Amino acid sequence: xxxxxxxxxxxxxxxxxxxxxxxxxxxxxxxxxxxxxxxxxxxxxxxxxxxxxxxxxxxxxxxxxxxxxxxxxxxxxxxxxxxxxxxxxxxxxxxxxxxxxxxxxxxxxxxxxxxxxxxxxxxxxxxxxxxxxxxxxxxxxxxxxxxxxxxxxxxxxxxxxxxxxxxxxxxxxxxxxxxxxxxxxxxxxxxxxxxxxxxxxxxxxxxxxxxxxxxxxxxxxxxxxxxxxxxxxxxxxxxxxxxxxxxxxxxxxxxxxxxxxxxxxxxxxxxxxxxxxxxxxxxxxxxxxxxxxx
Length: 294
Known about the structure:
By secondary structure, the protein is an alpha/beta fold. Helices cover 33% and strands 21% of the residues. The chain has helices at residues 20-28, 55-62, 77-86, 101-113, 155-166, 187-196, 213-224, 250-253, 263-272, 284-293; strands at residues 8-12, 32-37, 45-46, 49-52, 67-70, 91-94, 117-119, 125-128, 132-135, 144-151, 171-176, 202-207, 229-233, 277-278. The strands form 2 sheets. A 7-stranded mixed sheet has the order 3-4-2-1-5-6-7. A 7-stranded mixed sheet has the order 9-8-11-10-12-13-14, sandwiched between helices. The two termini are 30 Å apart.
């Protein structure tokens, strides 16, 4: 991973998924935005960025690009991501929401073959407080420190960061992996990244009903994570019916435990892994402090 102020970053598409405010905020934070890509707008300037028709044209002028932030229409995300991979960009953040599932499956196969990290779709991106902002996370809630955050939610990521900052606990890396039904990088990947990150001393995992990623994370924490992990599961009162939106086809549901994907299932898995779980975001700092004292 290259998440430093020297990382060269581009934006593919300027749409409703990202605003001038977000772009100005990234630039003010020191993110090295070098260009934008918008087919048909090559040669122009938008948001003080030179615009190119193709990613390969940016690479030809600026050399290797570390990260692309994709903000195009959901049905254009696959083409944009494949274009980035073909130009040897190995970190892709997809801000756009609602990418077609089959497109995402195709992208994941290509990304795996090319060892490309995908964050999102439907993600506000990554922030390394004090160093780099990649996406739409509100940087004012963050301060540099020892706590890593990995979350499925967008706004809850910011809320947890704010609570930690208020309590004097800064953050090392914060990432929202995305809220679409199928996303790129997983809790497991980011737990490993944060466990290996020398600036991270504790990890906060923020989950929500739907799917089985929190349960898989709980098992992985027991097996492979050395640093303390604190969790928060949102939506404990949500109707189980809502979980079906993230279960794929009806065939995938048949035969499943009726508790699959519920908040209770995740809480049970985290309890078995002996991961402290906060009842609300404001209680996370206290649990983090307790774990750091051990």
